[in-house]
Amino acid sequence: xxxxxxxxxxxxxxxxxxxxxxxxxxxxxxxxxxxxxxxxxxxxxxxxxxxxxxxxxxxxxxxxxxxxxxxxxxxxxxxxxxxxxxxxxxxxxxxxxxxxxxxxxxxxxxxxxxxxxxxxxxxxxxxxxxxxxxxxxxxxxxxxxxxxxxxxxxxxxxxxxxxxxxxxxxxxxxxxxxxxxxx
Length: 183
Hints:
By secondary structure, this protein is an alpha+beta fold. The protein has five helices and five strands, in the order H-H-H-E-E-H-H-E-E-E. The protein has helices spanning 2-45, 48-63, 77-87, 114-132, 140-146; strands at residues 91-97, 103-109, 147-151, 154-155, 173-178. The protein has a five-stranded mixed β-sheet. The protein starts with a helix and ends in a 5-residue tail after the last strand.
């Protein structure tokens, strides 16, 4: 009889234990669902405009770093990456002088080609227009048909040639000149 009681107690204990595990699992699932709902509500509670304001405030703090202080307030990821590459010596600044006297500091990788420089000039001008307003569209086909880049009297005509092959190094000046018309 004692054996029967012990067996019954074991069965009851196992049943109670199993029930307790199931109840605990259900409670954990309910708590997880509640946490997920709260997170969803938190995400929905923050409007896009407020999120952008918070992001821009954080970005303004980052730009105050001594390495990034030369960058504009409305900085792009590409500009931050370029500045970091400059600091690590992976990029160089080519100063492009326009006919009106404006000097554009263009950042390109050390192994850049003439085509890479042209693309970087285009990105620089597009960002400048977005920030300052002005002309809505530039025909770059027209620009490169009408103007050329010159370094130390040598025309940068071969788009595939590396800037270093022309002798261009960090902080060198390249001039933006109007092509002479052929007769």
